[in-house]
Amino acid sequence: MICFGEDKPLTVFQEAQKATPEAKAKAVAFLERIRPQGRTYPIPAIRQAWAALKSVKAQDPAVIFLLTDAEFESPAAVK
């Protein structure tokens, strides 16, 4: 889970995690402290997410969900 804005991305885990009850609780606690603010610049967070997926074993499912509360400042850069 990586949160992005105009500053450095914030993450609760340094690498991909299985959705255990403990990991879910830690993620919820992390999200409860996040407040939307500033601009929307997802590129560093997307790069961090791709890097985290490299640690996922081939047989394990891997997906990136990108959620935002705004439009991207440079949509072409996200494509």
In short:
This protein has 79 residues and is mostly helical.
Name the features.
79 residues; mainly alpha; 3 helices; 34% helix; 5% strand
Describe the structure.
The protein is mainly alpha-helical and 79 residues long. The chain has 3 helices and 2 strands; from the N terminus they run ββααα. The protein has a two-stranded antiparallel sheet. The longest helix has 12 residues. It is globular, with a radius of gyration of 13 Å. The mean pLDDT is 80.
Oligomer: single chain
* Rg, Å, rounded: 13 Å
Low-confidence stretches: none
Class computed from helices, strands and strand pairing: mainly alpha
Helix content: 25-40%
Q: Sketch the topology as an H/E string, one letter per element.
A: EEHHH
Largest sheet entry: 2 strands, antiparallel
Terminus-to-terminus distance: 21 Å
Mean pLDDT: 80
Tally of DSSP β-strands: 2
From the spread of the alpha carbons, the general shape counts as globular
Strand adjacency order, main sheet: 1-2
- Proportion of residues in extended strands: 5-15%
Number of helices: 3
